[in-house]
Amino acid sequence: MILLAIESSCDETAAAVVRDGRHVLSSVIASQVKEHVIYGGVVPEIASRRHIEAVSGVVSQALMQAGLSSPQLDGIAVTYAPGLIGALLVGVNFAKGLSYATNLPLVPVHHLRAHTAANYIAYPELRPPFLCLIASGGHSHIAEVRDYTDFRVIGRTRDDAAGECLDKAARAMGLPYPGGLNLDKASAGGDPFSYRLPHPSVQGSEYDFSFSGLKTAVVNIIHNAKQKNEEINVKNLGASYIRAVTDCLAANTEKAARASGHKKIALAGGVSANSVLRRTMAEICEINGWELFMPPLPLCGDNAAMVGAQGYYELLAGNIAPLSQNARATADI
Length: 333
Ligand code: KG4
Ligand code: ZN
What we know:
The protein has helices at about 35, 45-65, 85-100, 110-120, 160-170, 180-185, 210-225, 235-260, 275-290, 305-315; strands spanning about 1-5, 10-20, 25-30, 75-80, 105-110, 130-135, 140-145, 150-155, 265-270, 290-295. By secondary structure, it is of the alpha/beta class.
């Protein structure tokens, strides 16, 4: 089964053609990073406008690179939630128009399910059940993937997402957008024990996260240093901060895996590109004898190939949307 997939939940306009959920025939991404860098973050209105300009060309390119046209497709998968509503609407409406014109089924895909499915592309042998840490700019979930379309969230953030927290701290340290990636690079080789930072946990809810206090702590360190006219060592502060965030993510995932008995652990979402998180999870899984699945870096961030991968399983499960399908800024996984 061959699906065309479209993704526009944040600042990447992407389209891909994917066969049987595992084979990527083409994948095109138009990134808007250059548009947003001067503002230090994604400006939703600009994102929507750029998606409108890019979506048609990106879809045509994906079909052209795959050497296919609509009669050879079996469906159109699209990210419908969660994300920036104005951005999501562009992809959803484009997909609806295409579905109407071609009579192909419209397959709605949850963005976090799609991130998880990036692993199916990288690991053809991976099958549910497994445990997945999904950490992106807007979410930090520990989810049991009981089946391809059956997720149970066992841990989530109570406030900020891990990616959001990394982005804000990077900005406070004077690093350009995209913050998480630049903080990862800037702190390479830094001393992760040089700055004392809290490792917050949520009382009574051992798999949940709370990152807002950590973010405030780092902003206070920077503020206090400025007041005293002291220099901040970005390399060391970045390394200490990344250690604090990744320790929380890794520790809760390890606890959740022990308690649930899962021996297959996957990472997903933009933050899973983080070098320290990848190293830490590799160590934890090796010590415990667990199998670890991590998407290759190009599949960690937003792309449409992962939407096509998840879309295949959604279509197999009969998840076909009517043309009244709406986009949603928030939705349970
Ligand atoms: O999944 P994603 O591309 O978009 C959302 O669905 O939100 O995730 C974006 C997040 C951003 O917060 C970004 O800073 C973070 O992923 N990120 C990283 C790295 N690359 C991207 N965080 C830490 N280290 C990285 N190397
Ligand atoms: Zn994402």
